[in-house]
Amino acid sequence: MNQKVNRLKYLTDGIIIENPILVIMIGLCPTLATSISAKDALGMGVAASFVLICSNIVISAVRKFVPDSVRIPIFIIIISTFVTIVDYAMQAYAPALYRVLGVFVPLIVVNCIILGRAEAFAYLHNIFDSFLDGVGKAIGFTLILVVMGIIREYFSTGAIFGMVIGPKFLISNPMLIMIFPPGGFLLIGIFKALINKFIIKPGVAD
Amino acid sequence: MKSLTWMVISLFLVCFIAAGLLSKVYTLTKIQIEKTQKNNMLMRFSEVLPGAKKFQEVVTDSLWIGFDEQNQKIGIVFEVTPRGYSGPIPILVGYGVDQMIKKIYIASASEGLKETPGLGLKVKEPQFKDQFSNKMYIDLKSTKDGGNIQAITAATISSRAVINGIRNGIDRYKMYLVTDSTKVIQ
Question: What predicted TM-score, i.e. pTM, was given to this entire model?
């Protein structure tokens, strides 16, 4: 019984309590770069989620054969192999999708979340748990990315997912700061403050 | 000793499997990728030079001559990449035999355009880029400099880069409009 609760926790932890962006604070570079519009954010989130879940499963499957001293090179080879396969397959069989996501795929290789989860979780846990952890972290990453994308796109262009819905004054005088990295940092800071205040009570975390 | 051997073998095995897998995926997808890219290029060419059905590459990756159904030369398509505000701006221009620009296509951000979103990136918007349709060489100046192209507010550098890039392209390639194409290709 206790085990079951624990397993569910692997999944749900990633969404808020151990959110990769807001709590673990890794993968900030692609976050700042791709959360300028909701569409880009969703694209990056989906592409990174796929690689994260796959690499978690494979790394967990081979963890007993991988010697400690060379684990990092092996993780990187596995991750970049996945990314390249995704890149080629998308380019060949889903060119329309590739036009939207193509620019983000190579970025995934340097996404610290994936290497971070391989090292901190998949290397130490079994396949099923690693899969759950991957799904949880992927949801958490994509969720925050899309929420940031919606907010940044709205304030900088008056549109969401490319559809103009904002008031006139916002369209003629957009808040340009939201497009640039400082806007992203500001949002991350606000989110982080809210999470610390309401969900992770000070002193309880760590 | 044993752990050292295993370390080498395991790393070798992982690399070997990854390399084999990648080469398989590469050959499997290569044909399809080339086909899609060619289709994309043809689609984009006939977009900037309406009416053209066949294209002949004259200068690798930067100049093509367009022919219609009766194999008549109707214009050229060339690519220029002037320096914008924060990087090159790849532009594809369709230039007709009547010495008028037909249409231009500006690469999207995922194809290498790095202009500032909200400012320089507006060169992609129809309001700016459709101004070039049916313009002659002499029109190609911003309204401030006595021409016929309205520059984007607060993005003068990007606007000028596009205008001057197209001017330079025409300077460089207009001779291919008049010369017989069979002589151009060696």
Answer: 0.74
